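Supplementary Note 3. Input sequence used for the single-chain structure prediction.
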Amino acid sequence: MAKITTRYVCQSCGAVYGKWAGKCDACDTWNSLVEEAGDAGPAASPATAKLTRGSRKILDLLPLEGETAEAPRLVTGIAEFDRVCGGGLVPGSALLVGGDPGIGKSTILLQAMAALGRTGKRALYISGEEAIAQVRMRAKRLGLEKSPVELAAATSLADIVATLEQAPVADAVVIDSIQTMWSDALESAPGTVAQVRACAQALVRVAKAKGTAVILVGHVTKDGQIAGPRVVEHMVDSVLYFEGERGHQFRILRAVKNRFGPTDEIGVFEMRDTGLAEVSNPSALFLGDRTGSSTGSAVFAGIEGTRPVLVEIQALVVRSTLGTPRRAVVGWDGGRLSMVLAVLEARCGTSFGGFDVYLNVAGGLRVNEPAADLAVAAALLSSLDDTAIDPHTVVFGEISLSGAIRPVTQAENRTKEATKLGFKAAIGPRGLGALAGGLNVTEIDTIGSLVNAVCHSDVPGEAH
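The predicted structure, written as discrete structure tokens, is reproduced below.
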């Protein structure tokens, strides 16, 4: 019989140690080691364990005669949710949904299960954090109290697996959340790395065997990553993040992994008293608060997944009273801002050394693509020179360290979206004119050309 010993597992990265330490050497996280029971001795040693003799598997060739059928979909009817999933839920798939507390994860999933139930599918909502009465109160507040969704309040993995294996088989089930589930086969507490891994693996196995679409809700850490080891994200078929700022009513559902659809796809929702309402035209919503022309503002034509999205880039450059000027960024990469500032100073002669720089992406959206470089540079120069950019102009392009403006992907889709929303002009890299349709295009090949197009001061940096 194997001897029972103790080990210490990092709750951030899953590293295992023989004794407790204040800091995990693998991920540099403090106070993350938790004691767990584990097996030791000859029975647990891979070198001495007796392996079960396997059977030979039949191998198939990759080329298949005829056409391969597309994976069937469970369409909920919530267009933005189905878009992020790749066209709907796939039977037998496992999804992991993460987001900050109170961002709306439970709300959107309850709405999705209610919409699926109204189509005649069997939808289950299993909560480990709320009682059934609390879920019903939330459903009543959302106007979903008459939806045919089956509810359960459970945290035992054995009970949940027995419920999913019974007939009739459920079409879709939500587990809210995976950190509250526990297995009696392990002695560790719920929420630990061992419990999260074991429960997720068991639920994924049931999903594949029964053809049920399982949606797991995951808590996030302070850094915004789903809590627990990354192995949980590797086990599931899709990973969705629910993003948004508490001060904004917009919520972004973003796919960062999807085996059945495109990654980096987004769905846009608006938080209302009756729940989350989908936004079919996010560009018009993100630009709805713009009031004419103002300095330090540029409209960026971006691509999120397969859809073009227009957002406003806001910059404020003010003379600093500190020894080290401040650099504050919301919705963009701070390292990328430092690079753009360095290129502007080195290639254009502008000086930001004595100024505080504040950059914001309006609407709570986070922009990740390098095509936003040119829009950020235009907003910075506009604020520095105190000159407004034409409010009917969109800007996009990537800036290299040499100061050259590089072309970006899907330029035609960006300009089509701008034309649809009433924009008249565009500033972008060379070759844009052939794809711009009816827009008045200003093609630039270096960052110096952007300075000439935006600024009117003879001496850069002297407007303040």
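The chain has three domains: 3-44, 79-280, 285-454. Confidence is low (pLDDT under 50) at residues 40-49, 457-464.
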